[in-house]
Design a protein that fits this description.
This is Histidine acid phosphatase. This protein has three domains: 234 residues, Rossmann fold, CATH 3.40.50; 89 residues, no CATH class; 82 residues, no CATH class. Helix 8 packs across helix 10 and helix 9 packs across helix 10. Helices cover 37% and strands 10% of the residues. The strands form two sheets. Strands 1, 2, 5, 6, 7, 8, 9 and 10 form an eight-stranded mixed sheet that branches. The chain is of the alpha/beta class.
């Protein structure tokens, strides 16, 4: 049986950071948050459970006490403590029930009902209107569209729409590492058929479905009163299932030799820097942006972790993040609240695996191999911009996309030789220069991309004797996802 080192992000992390000094001013915060506990992905549609609702609500309560309460040690400068000011808060989530419901549950605790003193409004005619649910605060959730996908999707790049990222992730399924793990774990997965036969056939019980199998069993161990052949699920077996899923998912989300595989982390990096930059520029305005929150997938965590060199700090960053995990970017200054320049501004990165709390707060980690927990603003921006993709033209070039909205950028990319960040190879960051019109280039690009993807898929099918089965059959437990393993919103 193949055994991996422990990768779960739980125990071996450094101690939590010390409290903010009195001279420190938090200027803005951006947070990326995973959803709470849900039903299994293979029994789509996935739904947020009551446990998951509690997890994200408790997380919202913690971050309220950290950033919003009047007496918070890390209170964001100028943020409204009780009644939400919509212009100060930016919240987004993909169009997905689990993620949007998680965002809603989190916000219910972040800005709870205002209570009887503030939940009534007097109209001109002298009558009084009382808000429902003791002044429940309605906070809009925007749609996060870049690199997001659906919670029912089982594969990261299947919803990224980035052609080169899809090709890169597919390459993993013909790699020596994948072949070794696939062959060495055949007996391990087949021995679990008495547990999973209701959803996975004998052909499906392989390392190819490492994440789906672990996810199905993990949900069962949390919620099911009875599990078929439960005696097979020893602590060692559960550990093995988790570490195999960790290894597969990180390999699909990040690869140092082909960084475009981490395209979701690249787009997230651009969203982080854009929000913090906007927050810095409006820090003196009462209505300026203060707190940005995005709910998304564990795959995006993994992609960003790889790009930011966090596995070099702790190998646990190569594991699948737990439900309700959060990573946070705090922008702060030790200078005067009203008299400072960008040179006085710093950014620190914090992460917590699972639900954060007062007794178990998030921890600081150094980014980009610097060894520094607090990076000067300009250094932070330089490192993030080295791999971020926030411009449509740069994204199209890096991904090799030339159809749809990318068709308009084909000639532009050729003329100016723009690249998508120094982290990308020259092949990934240069466009075509063939003198063909954008429309024809689009058709050619689409055909080439399709040929590459189909070629790799065919190779996978031949090498491993796999068969393509529809997602509908998979949801019914009769099929298997080819190339599956990554939830874009996991």
């Amino acid at each position: 049986m193949y055994t991996l080192p422990i990768l779960a992000l739980a125990a071996a992390l450094p101690t939590a950071l010390s409290q903010s000094s009195n001279s420190e001013t938090i200027l803005g915060v951006y947070m990326f948050h995973r959803h709470g506990d849900r039903t299994a992905k293979i029994t789509a549609p996935a739904n947020l459970t009551d446990l998951g609702y509690r997890q994200v609500y408790d997380s919202g309560s913690y971050y309220r006490s950290r950033y919003i309460d009047s007496g918070a040690d890390f209170r964001i400068s100028g943020i409204n403590p009780d009644a939400v000011l919509q212009s100060q808060l930016q919240v987004s989530s993909p169009i997905d029930d689990v993620l949007q419901n998680s965002a809603t549950g989190f916000l219910q605790a972040l800005y709870p009902p205002v209570g009887s003193e503030l939940d009534a409004e007097e109209l001109r005619n002298g009558s009084t209107v009382t808000a429902p649910m003791q002044g429940y605060q309605l906070i809009p959730i925007g749609v996060a569209e870049s690199g997001t996908g659906s919670e029912d999707s089982t594969w990261l790049q299947g919803t990224s729409d980035c052609a080169k990222a899809e090709v890169s992730s597919n390459e993993y399924f013909v790699s020596d590492e994948y072949r070794r793990l696939y062959d060495s774990t055949r007996d391990f997965y087949r021995n679990l058929l008495p547990v999973i036969s209701g959803m996975f056939s004998e052909d499906d019980a392989t390392f190819e479905n490492a994440y789906e199998i672990w996810d199905y069993i993990n949900v069962a161990t949390i919620h099911n009163n009875t599990i078929p052949s439960a005696s097979l699920l020893t602590d060692r077996t559960l550990f093995q299932l988790r570490t195999l899923a960790d290894a597969q998912q990180f390999a699909l989300a990040y690869n140092a030799s082909t960084p475009i595989r981490a395209v979701t982390g690249m787009t997230l990096a651009a969203q982080i820097t854009q929000f913090l930059n906007d927050s810095l520029s409006t820090a003196g305005s009462f209505s300026g942006q203060r707190l940005g929150i995005q709910f998304g997938a564990y795959a995006t965590f993994a992609s960003f972790f790889g790009l930011a060199q966090l596995p070099e700090v702790n190998e646990d960053f190569t594991g699948v993040t737990d439900y309700a995990s959060s990573m946070v970017f705090e922008m702060f200054t030790n200078a005067s609240k009203t008299d400072y320049s960008p040179e006085d501004v710093f950014v620190r990165f914090l992460y917590h695996n699972g639900t954060a709390s007062e007794s178990d707060p998030p921890t600081e980690y150094p980014l980009f191999g610097t060894g520094e927990n607090a990076l000067a603003w300009n250094d932070f921006m330089e490192n993030m911009n080295a791999f971020s993709l926030g411009d449509t033209g740069a994204w199209c070039t890096a991904c090799g996309n030339s159809t749809g909205e990318c068709a308009a950028y084909v000639n532009d990319n050729n003329d100016d030789g723009s690249s998508a960040g120094s982290a990308l190879s020259s092949e990934e960051s240069t466009g075509c220069s063939n003198g063909v019109s954008p429309a024809v280039n689009g058709v050619i690009g689409a055909m080439v991309t399709l040929a590459v993807v189909l070629g790799l898929e065919a190779l996978v099918l031949v090498v491993f004797g796999l068969r393509v089965v529809s997602k509908k059959r998979l949801a019914q437990g009769a099929g298997r996802v080819v190339g599956g393993g990554e939830e874009m919103k996991g």
